[in-house]
Amino acid sequence: MSEHTYALPADAAEFYESTFVPALFAGLARRLIEAVAPDVEESMLDVACGTGVVARASTAGRVTGLDRNPAMLAVARRAQPALNWCVGDATALPFADNAFDVVVSQAALMYFADRVAALREMTRVGGRLGLQVPGRLAASPGYVALAELVARHAVPSASEVIAGYFAAGDPDRLSAQCEEAGWQIDRLTTWTSATRLPTMDAFIKAELLPLAGHLDDEARRRIVADSRLALAPFVTPEGEVAAPLEIQLVVGRRR
């Protein structure tokens, strides 16, 4: 999500790494790397890498992570200083043609102002593609419940932020955009993951963080008060919240 939030402050980058990575993105990263299977002799670029969870999971011999957000990259560099981390824009990648064997991107495409332009840049620099994004909101029951909860109590712009997570998730449109950018899709897999946090309080804190500029204190209070009933179907007997969401995974190669 870092391409959209390139001005993210250091404390938010730290929260992303400590909370969202174990809750969701680490598991997604393993699935993405297994799907694209970079070899130890290959090079890989992770576009809009955030704190580097996919780059750090890679089996490629040479790995570069790129992001617009210096705070995210500072966390990534501290976690794995041996990898190459650089600031850059997904729609104007600072690399030569055919610079990488594999190019990947996770949970970022929906925030690019021009998705086809970013995908075209990935085509230019990479031979194979691994792309993973949240799927459709309607197929993500945990987030349908969250979106309905926010819509009841907050201004419309808060609901738009949640909908934005899923803006690139229609499989037909995603396929068309990849093909327009020059990728030949080998497979598009739709699967279901879940955001997992140990308590309802932890889940609500994490999910309301991106909405901070769209919530006043009263709206936040009402959302927190109603969350236990609205999200009850996603609470385990141990009190953990597991909010299901659809994921689209694209594996392809440059035409």
- The percentage of residues in β strands lies in 15-25%
Structural class: alpha/beta
Compressed to H and E, one letter per element, the order equals: HEHEHEEHEHHHEHHE
Distance between the termini: 27 Å
Biggest pleated-sheet summary: 7 strands, mixed
Low-confidence stretches: 1-6
Q: What percent of residues adopt helix (DSSP H or I)?
A: 40-55%
Beta-strand segment tally = 7
**What is the radius of gyration computed over CA atoms, rounded to a whole number of angstroms?**
18 Å
Total DSSP helices: 9
Biggest sheet strand order reads 3-2-1-4-5-7-6
Q: Write down the overall geometry.
A: globular
For the residues shown, what is the average pLDDT?
Answer: 95
Descriptive notes:
The protein is built from nine helices and seven strands. The chain has helices spanning 10-36, 53-57, 70-79, 115-125, 141-153, 156-165, 171-180, 200-208, 217-230, and strands at residues 43-47, 62-67, 84-87, 100-106, 126-134, 183-197, 241-254. Mean pLDDT is 95; it is low at 1-6. α2 links the parallel β1 (43-47) and β2 (62-67). The chain is an alpha/beta fold. α5 (141-153) runs antiparallel to α6 and α5 (141-153) packs antiparallel against α9. The chain has a seven-stranded mixed beta sheet with strand order 3-2-1-4-5-7-6, with helices on both faces.
